[in-house]
Hints:
Two copies of one chain form a homodimer. By secondary structure, chain A is an alpha+beta fold. Chain A folds into two domains: 10-74, Orthogonal Bundle (Arc Repressor Mutant, subunit A); 79-265, 2-Layer Sandwich (Beta-Lactamase). Chain A has helices at residues 10-19, 30-37, 41-53, 69-75, 79-99, 141-148, 152-160, 174-187, 229-250, 259-265; strands at residues 57-59, 65-67, 102-109, 112-119, 134-135, 190-193, 200-208, 214-223. In chain A, the strands form two sheets. The first copy, chain A, has a six-stranded antiparallel beta sheet, sandwiched between helices. In chain A, strands 1-2 form a two-stranded antiparallel ribbon. In chain A, β7 (200-208) and β8 (214-223) form a beta hairpin. In chain A, α1 (10-19) packs across α2 (30-37), α2 (30-37) packs across α3 and α5 (79-99) runs antiparallel to α9 (229-250). The first copy, chain A, starts with 9 loop residues before the first helix and ends with a helix. The interface between A and B is large, with 62 and 62 residues. Chains A, B: Residues 70-249 form the IclR-ED domain. Chains A, B: Keywords: DNA-binding, Transcription, Transcription regulation.
Amino acid sequence: MAERARPISVAGKVMAILDAFALGDVRLNLSEICRRSGLPLATGHRLVGELVAGGFLERVPDGTYRIGTRLWRIGSQAPAVTGLRELALPHMEDLYEATHDNVQLAVLRDRRVLVVERLRGTRSVPVVTQVGATLPLHATGVGKVLLAYAPAEVREAVLAGGLPRHAPRTITDPEELRRCVEQVRRSGYSVTRDEMTLGAASVGAPVRDAEGAVVAALSLVSRTRSADLRRLLPPLTTAARALSRDVAAHWRGRPDALSAERKAGA
Amino acid sequence: MAERARPISVAGKVMAILDAFALGDVRLNLSEICRRSGLPLATGHRLVGELVAGGFLERVPDGTYRIGTRLWRIGSQAPAVTGLRELALPHMEDLYEATHDNVQLAVLRDRRVLVVERLRGTRSVPVVTQVGATLPLHATGVGKVLLAYAPAEVREAVLAGGLPRHAPRTITDPEELRRCVEQVRRSGYSVTRDEMTLGAASVGAPVRDAEGAVVAALSLVSRTRSADLRRLLPPLTTAARALSRDVAAHWRGRPDALSAERKAGA
């Protein structure tokens, strides 16, 4: 999440309150909302009350607050995300059916992986990732793909910004990660093993638009001990290419359609 | 969408602007946003500019505005919806795999069907419904289920409120709809044929919580000419019961978890 200056205008304060929930916390109490949004308690109390009255937040009986269904409904109309999701879903269903593993679709956003859609492999490794969550670029299959094709300044910023360890085999050395993403660019796919979560492995592939620019990444997340590249790669790259064709065909003549997403990622 | 009084406070104005997009329009220009939100052009212009700066709205090169990815991300954290979605997705994937038809999950909201999740049957009838969209209760499989188990005052309000025709066989007579939903309560499932869209048929079944209250509906949407109850009902009711067990187990001890959704529907 980008840093937000201490909000001055009321609209800025409203956005800061809603942003307090963007980190994925389901419920926050008033003082936590105010702390995160940089608002005095009285101001926070008044605005949160208005947001509850409007259905944008919901008050839980224990006194905490959570994002309301009305806000979910408005957010679900975001075309940059839902357009891509609509195109991807049939291909993701095919991938699920072929592999019964977890299928993830993600885009680059603020130097993180933003998970746009996910099908859960009920007989595969449990994945806690939620739609709308963000993940680190350097430790995930989708992330390595997005990093490999990101503008050079994004890649350098990530390499220079520190590579926290998430699991035993997370790549924490910038030079090793640089070699890894160069390999992704050469081969056209990424592989992770025990890098984000012990026991989970993933393969990722790029989704391209009509000009060949990488606009998203598709991945399969499987158990490390049963993750066999020869089994996972052919359906993954097939689905990623089929989705790329749909993206190229669907967004033709609408050059703005995904540009906000790309720009946001850059 | 509930009626909203002309907004007075700035927070109310911000919510009114965002609400202008809730009807599912992908892009709106400034004057349309102001008309829908009841704001003067100067006020609307200033607040829309702030929302664009904050990433809540995005400005498209043609000068129109659309919901931004940041708002999508915050909205996707709404626990009443995403909790249900997370529980339902594995069962929906099983249903998709068994039938290859469209699978829909919906809740009651403001006397309409709110679509929470959808898997698209690539070899079934095309369905235009998007996640986050609302549908009429009287013309859909999920809607008839939700209507059948809704509080009596909701049912009477829908019956008295007019039943618009959407397709050749939409039930437009209140007494016929009343008999239909009584039949749904007796049989435990709903059926529609050419009632929402010509050529599309659906079967719906209730999802219950630990106390037996209906909290959602699950449906299969198929081509009318190939919709065979004997084929569609067994997997549908099996999946709806399995999901009900998960809802009952998962939400136990958290009685508030779905109550906001139920209250909103009531």
